[in-house]
Amino acid sequence: MNLSGGSPATLPSGKVSLDEHPKIFCAGDVHGDFLALLRVLKKTGVARVPDHVMAAVEICPTEQVGRKINPLTVDEMHSVVWTGGRNALLLLGDVLDNRRGGKDDPYGVCGFAGTQTQMMELLQQLARAARRGGGKLVWVLGNHDCGNAMGGNRYFCERYAPQWHTRPGTTGDKVPSVYATCNAHGFSDDHVRHVQDALLKMRSVAVMNIHSPSTGHSVIALHGGITKSSMKFLTSSQMGPYRLSKQDSPDVNITRLNRLFHDAHSGDTTAAYLVDHHSSKMPTWCRPSRIEDPETFEALFGTTRMIKAHDVQERGANCGQGHSRATSGAAAMVDSELCRVDAGMSRCFAKYVPRRKIAFVELWVEGPDLMRRVHNYSAENI
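-> structure tokens emitted (382 positions)
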């Protein structure tokens, strides 16, 4: 499926409306941990997750024998159902990769060969159900997702990815077909095709504009962020047809950025070169600590508000200067702030982030105001 020659109408809009979706939730990196993903789905209320399914993915095997299987049965997969109605959930990147070094468990921390395969299949299942009910589930691209979809390199694959995956469509097989994730150069062709297909079916985006046409509010949601230096690069001639411009509307600029990543994941060599060789300037990789150059940011994207993930922190989701404003659970108006929602939820971070949290930010419109609530839950108390 090559989107590089498609019309803009065939691409995801990169927009989600608070006028259409009463609540929009933004959650950070689950990094290949099925338990973290299901906890996010459960605590946001967008899916019903039976206790026995939660218990099944909570198992943390350490022996290597008998792990080239899927963690859930067909019935267990189907028992997780969308209950979010017209609400929306944005997963802000790095759905994949549950290892943090070559010495970590080769199946991924607390993983099986089928863990990430079933995570991707469950997201597709829930995204279809959400659309039928007027809701939305969006996979916003992270640097790890892009690395998996573009081949990466051998060091990246062997350091971060589980070394085996079950093939898509084998959830019902008693002995599923398994492929090696890495080859001598990076991610194997089997794996690249697997992830590319999932991203395209999910209509994944690099940048999302959360907006409310009735009130004029908007927030840019993404994985890494956009810095002053990245804005300079993204508006340079090096970007070619994907170049952003202050003279163009935010919708056009967001579409160009999202088209760049879809083309890169669909085999377009120009797009792939830009994303791979200039990754530090891309929204999947940047690490802003504040809204840099708000004037240019607003000219390009129509707002000075940003929600991002990517940077692991023990505090969980937080917003505002110093990342401490607004107590968890308290409603507050959204102003010109940077919100961070990564909390190292995956168990692969256990040795670095011992007090992991399930964290997300909830957005809604109240009269003329854009409101947010920060949610942080102790992983042990869910």
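Residues 115-132 form the longest helix (18 residues).
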